[in-house]
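Changelog-adjacent note: as of this version, every example in the card shows the full chain rather than a window. The one below runs 559 residues end to end.
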Amino acid sequence: MKQGKQRLIWGILLAAVLGGPLQAQDQPESQRGEIRDTEFIIRKDRVLTLPKQSRVFENSPALPPVSTTPNYSYEVTNYFLPLAPVALETQPFQKDFPRPETDQTMGTAKLGFGNYASPLIQLDLFPQVDPELSYGLHLKHQGYYTGPVDGENSAETHTRVRLTGSMYKDIVEIYGKFGYERDAYHFYGYTPQPETQVLADTIRQVFHTIRTQVGIRRIEQTEPFNYGASLSLRLFDDRYEAQETEALVNANVGFRANENLNGGIESLLAFTSPSDVNYESITRNYFKLHPYAQYIREGLQVKIGANVIHENDIVPNKLKEFYVFPTVFLSYHLLPEFGIYGRYAGDVNRTTYHDFVQENPFLGPSEQLRNAIQNFQVDAGISGKVNDLVNYQLGFKYGDFTNLHFFGNNAMDSTRFQLIYDNNAKVLEYHGTVNYTYDNAYRLDASLHYYQYTLDEIASAWHRPEWEARINNSFTPDEHWTIHANLHAMGGIRAINLASDTERRLDPLLDLHLHADYAFTRRFSAFVKGNNLLNQRYERFNYYPVRTIQVLGGIGFKF
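Full-length structure tokens:
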């Protein structure tokens, strides 16, 4: 039954399929390319509209993250092996680097000998082992064991020992000095007599000086604020009864506002205690304060300050112990070749017995030591530079002084000198200097001074020159030669012998010096010195002729 129904259905479907194509083949077929009459109607009022559709603003749902790093677990097994670590022995590679040759030396030495039995021994050490520490040693002995009068009775020797050291810490330098000096002379200002023998030991004079100094100062001096301070001590005595101790305290501060304006304060405190045949247990105190301000700009220089001084010397003509003196300096250069300058200053010029014997080593006992009061001094003139080769200065000084010192032969012993003071001395000085340099091969320094004295209590400026001239020449023709030729002339000296109350005018002195040094190598040289080559038997001090021609030669080393 079921099979019969299935057959009936399949038959109907088959008839429908086959009947469609057959019916289509009975209709007539239209020809291709035929154009039929067609009417097109175009209407502008027709509007094509579409219905509104709501937009979807919802975000797509986030999908759950997919893990891409699966967890893995490993099982690690430790294996311990009884193996000792490998020991490597290393050594640095040794290479010899030669030390570069330089001109730096650690010291110099000189040995020489000349007539008048004059040995010269000199040693200078200045090792540089630390950039923050420096020190040096200076040793020198120069002797003239015979002299111009009675052989050894006019002998003269000089010995110097000096130690210096500096320590550099950040911005300051801490320095120290120690020195010892021994100077031996003889009072040979007498006329030798054949029947009279003078023993050298009875007229010998020996000066001993011990000095030390410690201080601190700023290294960089161009900083806006600078400072420095030092403490100095000096012990001095001679072979007789003169002694002198001295303590000095120096302190200064400076301030630089800009490149044109600067100023500062300088101070000195001195305690001196001298003793001699005619005085003892004297304390000479001296304090000086010098504030100043300076302005420099385009050839103009102005410096204004003051000298404020207190000193306690007891002298017969003393009016006060406290002084205030103005100081003014002005210079203006219209051109580098020409300028004018002027200076006005008052001061108290401190003096000691040690200062006097440095000027005149034949000084004997004196009645009193006095400071010189410079009531005022004017210095004015012109100066300039020509072609960067020649510097010159011409001018004059005029000053008024109280207790200006002079020298005369002692009233008790004419072979020695004593101090003579004038209550009111006026000094007029004309001076000129010239400096010339040519290509580092030649240098000339020349100066000329002429003095006029107007005195109050004494007749003449005893043992002070009326004129003085110096000409110094330095030649360096090549790297081997260094030559110095100097001329010193002085005249118009008047002397007084207080023992006989006689006066005399000393002959002019003319002293020519020559020093030549020849370097064979960088470390070995030879030298020769000549003094008083014009063979003048002049006297700088009354009755004391100097040595005539003296020649000294020797060798020098650098190490």
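Structural remarks: The CA atoms of residues 105 and 559 lie 5 Å apart.
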